[in-house]
Amino acid sequence: MTNLDLNTASAGAIISGMKAGELRSRDVLEHFLARLEQHNPSLNAVVAQNIEIAREQARLADVKQQSGATLGALHGLPVTIKDTYEVVGMPTVCGSSSLREHLSKRNAVAVQKMIDAGAIVFGKTNVPRFATDFQSYNSVYGQTNNPWNLQCTPGGSSGGAAAALAAGITPIELGSDIGGSIRTPAHYCGVYGHKPTQGVISLRGHIPGPPGVLSEPDLAVAGPLARCAEDLELLMSVVQGCTEIEARRGPVKLPRCTKKKPAQFRVRFWMDETLCPLDASVMNAYSHLLDVMKSAGIQVDIGAPEEFSFERVYKLYLRLLGAQLSNTAGKWQRLQLKAAGPLIQRFGEYFGAGAHMEEFFAGMAMSYADWQRCNERRWRLIEKSEYLFSQYDVLLTPIVPTTAITHDNERAVHRRQIRVNGRTRPYTDHLPWIALATALGLPATSAPIAVSSQGMPINIQIVGARYRDANCFAFAKVLASLTGPIARPAAFF
């Protein structure tokens, strides 16, 4: 038997141990089930379980391993899945009472790829209702807590996933992201998360949209969460690719990154905008990171890229987001939304709305012709991003302005606020820094770099050129080598 610490080991190390015969899948599963029993009551991260079936699958995985058969990349690895993905025989509730009785009859495409590679699904993790909040709570399963501080949220919508990873309940997770739903929980919980290039991983079998929808949504992506950058890369290699029908437009092959040493990287560091200021705890961590990078010989330029206006990118993102989230709105609702935009623009501060939220409402009510014009603006920005990334390997930015916020589930969303440097800021300040990568379909990795003086983790966002996901992973590994692993939530280790 190996001396590998399963509480903290990477998924890759666990898989290597099983393939070498030093670990059995059954023992690994029982370890995580014991962690689940011990720690999930205080976290409420895993909300559905598949234990007996998982045990039988682990037994069969051990038999197959001993037979000398060819093994998949995730062979025998117990995993959890965000409860927005269809998993056969398990409920896919997506935090909604309307789906309380919904049992999946078909696996989501990305989930099927994981299972085909040998993964064993033993649980599903909590999300906000229909995955549309920056906190993970709902009327069906309740509130998920952050393992670093139970009074804080792990973020949303992949909050259960990030909390389970941070507490050592699961070794790897499949999340999704349209408004920072992978990147923000990873930041709040001090784990790794990756929003891939748009279209690289199929979202078929993801809720929302409604169960059974075949089309792929705008802006939204599937992506991995993990304990290290290497595991992000591992899961990406398994789940990338589309369905056979979708693949007719041509296979997606992501280029490799040949750079490994710090001094080989050219970096743009964008960490200051008056529209969405950072808390001092976050800014101090980034300032220290800047010193560390320069000392390591990394070529760093500071400030906003000339190619982009922070405000214009954010307004475009809100329009596109509104359009995507309006697909279930009826004619009367659209008329109401159209009327709401000017009111928000004029009285938004009174209503507690954040900057430019009128763009979101305008997006929810806009015509297809208006959407086409927005899409043209997006592609012009994508073209500008190609120039930016011809000068730099990656762009570093914040994810959200502060460390994990305290639970705030009782107030209406428009009444919620966050605190930055002792002052109240709009709840929607969760969105501006994640907007660029989402609107333009760029890959972005959320990587832990520090723990604040208040004992909460801080991540950085590593943005790359389209299809250059490997650059994000490579630079995340470089940062890990420079900063070292951050501390873990003490109550769980």
Automatic annotation (TrEMBL):
Residues 27-472 form the Amidase domain. GO terms for molecular function: transferase activity. The keyword Transferase applies. Pfam families: Amidase. Transmembrane segments: none annotated. Keywords: Transferase. Gene3D superfamilies: Amidase signature (AS) domain. One of its GO terms (cellular component) is endomembrane system. This is Glutamyl-tRNA(Gln) amidotransferase subunit A.
